[in-house]
Specification:
The structure holds two protein chains of two kinds. Chain A has helices at 2-8, 12-28, 58-75, 81-107, 123-141, 155-178, 190-211, 213-223, 225-238, 247-272, 281-293, 308-327, 335-354, 395-416, 419-429, 431-436, 441-467, 477-490, 495-511, 519-533, 542-549, 559-570, and strands at residues 115-116, 119-120, 374-375, 378-379, 384-386, 389-391. By secondary structure, chain A is mainly α. The chains are: A mainly alpha, B alpha/beta. Chain A: This is Amino acid/amide ABC transporter membrane protein 2 (HAAT family).
Amino acid sequence: MSKLANTIKPFARPLAILGGVLLIVAALLPWVTFALNSGKYPDLATLQFFDAPFAVTGFRWHILLLGVLVLIAVFAPIPSKGRVVRSLGWGGLAVALINSIFITTEGGGLGAITAADGNAAFGGIVGIVAGIAVILGGTGIGIELPAKWKVKLSTPLAYLVLVVTFAAVLFAVAQTLTAGGQGGPANPYAGGLFLSFLGFAAGLLTALNGIGLIGWISELSEKHRVFSVVVLLACALLLPFTNAGSEYWMTVAANIGIYAATAIGLNIVVGLAGLLDLGYVAFMGIGAVVAANLSGAAASKVGIDLPFPIAAVIAAIIAGIFGAIVGSPTLRVRGDYLAIVTLAFGEIFTRSAQNNIGGLTNGANAIPGVPPLDLFGKEFNEPLNIGSVELPSGVLYYVLIVLLVAAVMAIFANLKFSRIGRAWIAIREDEDAARAMGIKTGKAKILAFLVGATLAGLAGAVFAHKNGTVSYESFKFLESVTLLAAVILGGMGSIPGAVLGASLLFVLPEKLREFSDYRLMIFGLALVLIMRFRPQGLVPDRHRRAELAGEDVGGVPVDEVHEHDTKGATA
Amino acid sequence: MSTPVLEARDVSMVFGGLKALQNVSLKLDEGKVVGLIGPNGAGKTTFFNCLTGLYTPTTGSVLLKGDVLPGDPAKVTTAGVARTFQNIRLFPSMTVLENVMVGRHVRMKQGPLASIFHGPGYQKGERAARERSAELLEFVNLPGIEEELARNLPYGDQRRLEIARALATDPAVLLLDEPTAGMNPQETEATRQLILAIRETGVSVVVIEHDIKFIFSLCDSVSVLVQGQLLVEGSPEVVRRDPRVIEAYLGKPPDEVEAEVQAMVEETRQHGDAAESTTVLPVVTDPKPEGEQA
């Protein structure tokens, strides 16, 4: 890489400027030569652009913005210039590549993005060339570590910055969630547009990281921790008031939240204690089954109807007990052997639930009709009116789940910086040395399983009421693997990582409905690539980052992954 | 005669057909430093593993202050025997301070619930552990690097961090397995001063080492292990004059060794009470370890 950097050093700036200009040009060029079979590629991507030149939207607007930012970055006196420019280049390349590949595969061949029917549409190709030029230019300018800002702020000013930041985060989350719209037959382009948006957002975020803004703000929020937590929670609760505030998006967000909470629980077992658990979702299943049976649903085998908080606690405790039981072999087995034990446990749960062994799961018929939660007579699946504002149904579940995720996060963070948390990390690092330090490793490992399983059981109880049906199909091996992938993708031992990982892995299936045949392949490819280029995960924990990243803490920008996503989809 | 703080009685360890240790006995009096020397494969580390509960001796027993130690490293550490490892075994991805705080584990009272909810007891205990750990880092001369990751420390500092971590368990007995392996003469000297300072605090020490001069100038008594059997034990003067030891181990005329040891003993006397202040080290520039002997 450094050899390459030296070769292009003399041309770095002109190359970056050329790339930036080309990005802008690409945004203004047509991208598709003819209307695609499933309908016009979104908005102004066809030649019709010239009918309305000022209404640039969607990915073209993103490309245009990236191009302008590249030019600003090259000419403005900013720190870590090379890194910022390179990040923007990756963003541009990702957007151009994703859209080009998408158009090619959806619309019928290379003709769609070159020349056909007497029309020419080279936007995509120019965009790809521009992206590569900017990346090379950035590399040639020189990749330094992300800049560190020394600016100190007075408390009120710091609060203001944090509020503005979290408001921006809220806006970005709402935009990301709704990007591309609801996937499905009615909207075949949702997946491509969503991935394209992810590429753009990732490019922008890594650029902000390079310039030092993200590091500075995270330091700031670390300093004002309580305030940040409160504002962040408030922002999360305000999501229903944004453009994501429809029933569909609330449901998607709530589902993500349930899996995020479960992933954080798994992160205790895998990320902190270093115990590979391949059957984790079974604990969520146990929690769901217990809650369903105690809910008074017609199909439940236990004829009692307990209030939800009590049922949830019982579900969590029973899941925790199973966690301790599964954890007990960990006294004897390590590493690969433990993974097989947990894998077997997961299978035992699915099979016995499927065949209704024990008579509590109703087998293949599932347990339907789990009543929705209610509070003061208000059912959680109804719309909510606050004054004159009507919020869509599902909002109350969303709020409940946000609180659940917040609670699980707090538990995780508190445990991590405690006596038992240090013991877990020590076991992960070197079990023999940990024992020599007086840590009762057997007890500690069982405790890790117990806590993780309890949290999963709690999430399962909410899952049962929210979905209304509890079937063994929701708790199969694949779900365990996806959860594990979410933890590793996001960054082991890191809370934001687990949430981001869970969000990506559970929102992508919603968006990529039209790719359903390729979905798993995309996941697989994404994981392989992340493990190759960013083994520490997208938002790594401080410890893991140092362990796996070596010198260049920034690693490879995340957008590279999304770009490969589409390659996988079209392979 | 008071009870020895640590006593091994006729410890034997058999792996399959291999007799790694045969009836090895050792007595360690309070506030003393005992050296354990012997050729590679003599069973020194195996003996350490028996003392710390990592191995359960096939026959024989280990007593701390007259009580038989359980065969479990965690319980042995709780009882008051701490150790370092021949090949450094820190927790590489934890910070320096966290490494030492893991050592405080057995002396902290913090249940799972306190860990989850961070109650008032948590804050107090955590602060105390943090302060004690910082103190120990100061003691082993590693101040000001609490937030560094252990993996990023130079070799010599890692050795000293391991000692600080072991000391954090408030041990009565500290077992050091080749604490100067791979060190240059200055570092070795600093380690010797550190061990003397540890002895000053009332902790008894057992040291495995190949560096004969280091052992003879440091220890109050020396045991020689050859092929799993105790060959000789006694004061350094007795051991280094023993013809069997000279033949089996030293390979140098006794007078020559004597002269070198005298020089080092003299040096120690000159440094005298200022043992702690002399642990100041030059910056370590060569963290390259020697080839592992295991």
